[in-house]
């Protein structure tokens, strides 16, 4: 894991504070508004370019951990997200929707890094990436409309269009770019000149989007600073409950150590960039939803770093056995 990745939470916080200061001191809000969504769309295209669908075949080798992961991510977590929102944010509809968007979108990028750090089964983790992406693409509108209830206040058509714009278009562009570069230049050229550079632009684009978001909505953040603090408790509960449930389920299913790590990471890590992009596209008149989504990574990334050390495979032999 690179230094930049280790310090991602810090850089997100710095980008948010810098954007907040710039938005309050300078009249850049209207211009910043037009930066947020394009930066996120380019960032997601770069994330998807790095995704190799060939890994999907790995799911056949570990059906138990795959099924457990799908149940945790797409049944247990949405139910928990709804309960946390209804129980702790009942009077804040925008924060409830922001929390829901964050928690029902499993991670499709950095959980791989933390899985590798903890000596998890990276093959299964990579195989779960496209599966998680497709399922959240299909189910996210359902979750928002069903679990969001009156707090959602958005019609199905608008939400579907936003998911199409934010997920399907970048995914299609990424797949086209991967295919065309390999077809006309070869796989080695694609890895060197397409995939590797794509990995280098993801974090800068995320920071640019966060900076622009806070510069655009500086007044909103200032007015609702106390409200945003209310997100810390439900997020803390989530990031305690999911690892405990994942580890407990792993023991119940008698999963090998490396697969336990993989299950824990994929069930805990969330996809804040995708959730942020959808919030900006689907709820343009409710900026607090998008602003709330920036709080998630500030807590999530330190939690994942700590978790990687707590569940790390200690016996290399056990790790190797689990990979067979």
UniProtKB/TrEMBL annotation:
Cell compartment(s), UniProt: Cell membrane
Keywords: Cell membrane, Membrane, Transmembrane, Transmembrane helix, Transport
InterPro entries the record matches: Arsenical-R_Acr3 (IPR004706), BilAc:Na_symport/Acr3 (IPR002657), Na+/solute_symporter_sf (IPR038770)
Membrane-spanning residues: 35-53, 65-89, 95-114, 126-147, 159-181, 193-216, 228-249
Classification via Pfam families: SBF
Keyword Membrane: yes
Membrane association type: Multi-pass membrane protein
Family (UniProt): Belongs to the arsenical resistance-3 (ACR3) (TC 2.A.59) family.
Protein name according to UniProt: Arsenic resistance protein
Species assigned in the record: Nocardiopsis coralli
